[in-house]
Amino acid sequence: MPAYLADEADLDGPAGASSVPEVVVAPSSPDVSSAAPTSPVLPAASHSAATAAPAPAPAPASPQLGDGGLLRVPSFAPSSAQHAAEEVPPAEQVESRPGIELHEHARTVAHPALISALCEVVLQGASDLHVTVDAAPTLRVDGGLQPAFAGGEPWDAPTVSTALTSLLTPAMKEQFDERLELDFAYSLSDESRFRVNFYQQRGVMGAAFRLIPTEIKQLADLGVPEVVSRFAKLPRGLVLVTGPTGSGKSTTLAALIDLVNRTRADHIVTVEDPIEFMHQHKKAIVNQREVGHDTHSFANALKHVLRQDPDVILIGELRDLETISVALTAAETGHLVFATLHTQSAAQTIDRVIDVFPPHQQDQVRTQLASTLQGVVCQTLLPKASGKGRVVATEIMMMTPAIGNLVREGKTYQISSSMQAGRDLGMHTMDQKLADLVNTGAVTHKAAMEKVHDAEGFDRLVTRVINKSETVGLDAGIDFGDAFSIGSN
């Protein structure tokens, strides 16, 4: 059975229509001197501070011009981090990893211990890397957490700060210091791109890295029902892909946009934060805009998107009233709009969109949704019964006259019944799909029960005899990453 790739869900991979935040910057002056890193573990700036004469407060190192004319970003952490960083593989081992041709920045500027951990994400088929104080670098594999290195030592606050800030330009560091949050993309190699979030917790830095495969898989390869491909053929309307964090929304959306790109001579405009999958021009042309890099906000980008002659618009997330309003207007004026929400059912999705608006506008929005919404794909990931990889479970709603009337009348609680009766049209509820997965042996009954909406109704749909060991099942942890995991049934 097809399965989701351990990623989605950023960065300096194949050429795309838009750039992403760079971690290597051009030097502002040709007078900057060259200096190669001398420590196999710490960035050049930290190593210099560690070997200099003791001083109560060493000044930050100046930027230095490394190999290839790249500006080495100085370290922003105390040099006392060296003792913890030495517990992980040195730079020479990073460069020797099979199948990973590191980019210049990863080889010469970034913290070697952090690069080693990112390499482990790729080599172990993980979806995420977590870097946090007083814990060893930790991977998420098939939904569960495990150490990146066997016997890895916890990293203290200076080590975490040194490692993480080695990825930042001065401008990015300034932005993080101001906002205490930072989203950007980082490329380890041509084939390994990460979506990165830096944050502060209890006064110290932390980070989550999400591996984004450079290959955009087709819907069938992901295990998404074939009926979803119909949405890529629509001339206009709104299509929402929803689910909790880590459910593979971005992977599914990328597959839909790629299908449009391969089959239609259209202009596709995406607004993302950050850009995840990089789309090349195929039959269509694709322009990808990144919030914070190519535009200041979703709302600001969407104010102008209709002037850019788009046929298809992808909105990374419907975050607020203004963004949702523009999405509805774009769909209403003849554009095909794809977007995501963090909802877990079709009915909840419709209610969420309507509830964003003030009460006096909600009747109008119900009418707009009934006429523009074409479909909702809700999805989640479950560990396979084999214990290797994860499989996607979906809920699919297609807009029909009957469902349109329910939306107008505010009777979204009846949508589930209409979907159950509309299986011939390609619709199904989440509980129906979960029961199918249990009946075919793809997932355990216990794993499915953690995702069902109506436990009693679900058990009536399960026809396969469940043995005792299956009810115990494999506890693979909570899904956390817009990714699918490779694994055989």
Structure overview:
With 489 residues, the chain is α/β, with parallel strands linked by helices. The chain has 2 domains: 44-50 and 62-213, Beta-Lactamase (2-Layer Sandwich); 219-472, P-loop containing nucleotide triphosphate hydrolases (Rossmann fold, 3-Layer(aba) Sandwich). Helix content is 32%, strand content 19%. It has 19 helices and 15 strands. A 7-stranded mixed sheet has the order 11-10-12-13-9-14-15, with helices on both faces. A 6-stranded antiparallel sheet has the order 5-4-3-8-7-6. A two-stranded antiparallel ribbon has the order 1-2. α12 packs across α13 (359-372). The longest helix is centred in the middle third of the chain and has 15 residues, at 249-263.
Q: What gyration radius follows from the Cα positions, in whole Å?
A: 24 Å
> What's the CATH H-level homologous superfamily of the largest domain?
P-loop containing nucleotide triphosphate hydrolases
Give the N-to-C terminal Cα separation.
6 Å
The average pLDDT score comes to: 80
Q: What structural class do you assign from the helix and strand content? A: alpha/beta
Give the tally of β-strands: 15
Number of domains: 2
The profile of the biggest β sheet is: 7 strands, mixed
Number of helices, where a helix is a run of at least 4 consecutive DSSP H or I residues = 19
CATH topology of the largest domain: Rossmann fold
Sum up the overall morphology in one term. globular
Q: Which regions have little confidence, pLDDT < 50, spanning 5+ residues?
A: 1-93, 471-489
In CATH's first tier, which class of the largest domain applies? Answer: Alpha Beta
Helix content: 25-40%
The spatial strand order of the largest sheet comes to: 11-10-12-13-9-14-15
Strand content: 15-25%
Quaternary state of this entry equals single chain
